[in-house]
Amino acid sequence: MHELRLVREVFEDLLRRGETEGLQRITRVYLRMGEFTEIDPEVLRYFFAEKSRGTILEGAEIIIEHSPLRELRLLSFEGE
């Protein structure tokens, strides 16, 4: 299930980058997701909600920009 691996990689990258920047909390995550990734946006949001408990990502709003390409890309994130 390569889709789950892609979501996990983005999630882990966010955790590393947020902690490196000294953030206490990531509040918003901006992703670009292609229609050919075969990833359901609701499954992605569920994964983030479940895996983020107890981390700096807990409660972050996930904003998805759609793309005609086969991609899942972290565009940016906001935190405090």
Outline the secondary-structure elements:
Elements: H1 2-20, E1 26-34, H2 41-51, E2 61-67, E3 72-79
Parallel strand pairs: 1-2
Antiparallel strand pairs: 1-3
Unreliable spans are none
CA-based gyration radius? 12 Å
Question: Which CATH top level class fits?
Answer: Alpha Beta
Query: Count of helical segments?
Result: 2
- The CATH architecture name reads 2-Layer Sandwich
Q: Gist?
A:
Pfam families: HypA. The protein has about 80 residues and is α+β, with helices and mostly antiparallel strands. Helices cover about 40% and strands about 30% of the residues.
3D structure, described in words:
The relative contact order is 0.31. This protein is an alpha+beta fold. It has a single domain (2-79), classed as hypothetical protein PF0899 fold (2-Layer Sandwich). A 3-stranded mixed beta sheet has the order 2-1-3, with helices on one face. The protein is 38% helix and 30% strand. The N and C termini lie far apart (33 Å). It has 2 helices and 3 strands, in the order αβαββ.
State the main characteristics.
globular; 2 helices; alpha+beta; hypothetical protein PF0899 fold; 80 residues
